[in-house]
Amino acid sequence: MQALKFHPILKEKVWGGKKLKTVLNKFSDSDKIGESWELSGLPGNVSVVSEGEFKGQTINHLISKYKEILVGQRVLEKYGENFPLLIKFIDAADDLSVQVHPNDETAQKLYGENGKNELWYIMDNDRDSELILGLNKPLSKEEFRHSINKNTLTENLNSLKVKRGDIFFIPAGRIHAIKKGVLLAEIQQPSDITYRIFDWNRKGLDGKYRDLHVEEACMVADLKTEKSYLTKYPEKFNAFVQCVSNRYFTVNLLKFNREIIKDYTETDSFIVFLCTKGSFQLMYSGNEIKVSFGETILLPAVIKKIKLIPDKESELLEVYV
Questions:
Q1: For the domain bounded by 240-320, which CATH number is listed?
Q2: What is the pLDDT of residues 39-94, one digit of tens each?
Q3: Which fold has domain 4-220?
Q4: Which of 196, 202, 247, 258 is catalytic?
Q5: Shortest CA distance to 90 belongs to which of 176, 46, 24?
Q6: Where are the domains of the chain?
Q7: Could you confirm whether 247 is annotated as catalytic?
């Protein structure tokens, strides 16, 4: 099999902007593009190969045909023919709604679907850009519900400033929001279940107020506080650095300015690379493909030995399960 690039699936959002076009080179006529779904197997949003021998074929079709050759035996046994990740770029030209996601147990019980644990990698930010993560003080469910109903929730939210290179893991149940001026990569479970708690009293693209999901949020929200929400990782060059590893995904960061050789013989999974700075050549089995800033590429599990050659100083996220 070949390494695979896919057409981005662009999502217009009331809070979306221009950076996915002007910074990450995604093509759209809209100036309100909030999300670029880079890799998805979700119904209605299935990624399609953009070039090469498999051009025009969907990720779901390729998994059903090539099975463990594409995703790995262990991944196939655990997830079947369902692609186990959803990978996006997000541009917040305005504040996103304050929201929370259910865990696997609740999502399976209510919808027969996955919960949503996710990771954010900050790629760009305006001066003084912030995220909302968690609460600034513990609340009871009654206090939480009351603050939503009385429109005072923002008084209880924990805000923190961000900078390029920051990583945040957001487990299911953690209250969160991306705020104005942040461009990030998001790696998550394949789920689109979101409980909206507060939407800044604004109207959606259709001119109507978007629904809130107060009772659902009260059911799943973690109302405790944490000492720190930032994921710390060592600063290294020309070496893969592990940032987050859990039962849903592993995310490593590579900052490099020289050739890197990688052997995936012991990794029984597909690999996804997101180019978050610069560009690089991916070489394997006599093949060579360029991956530019803002591009995502999937390396099938059958490909075990690769070479990465950066264009000057470059950076990528390595993702697998």
A1: 2.60.120.10
A2: 999 999 999 999 999 999 999 999 999 999 999 999 999 999 999 999 999 999 99
A3: Jelly Rolls (2.60.120)
A4: 196
A5: 24
A6: 4-220, 240-320
A7: no
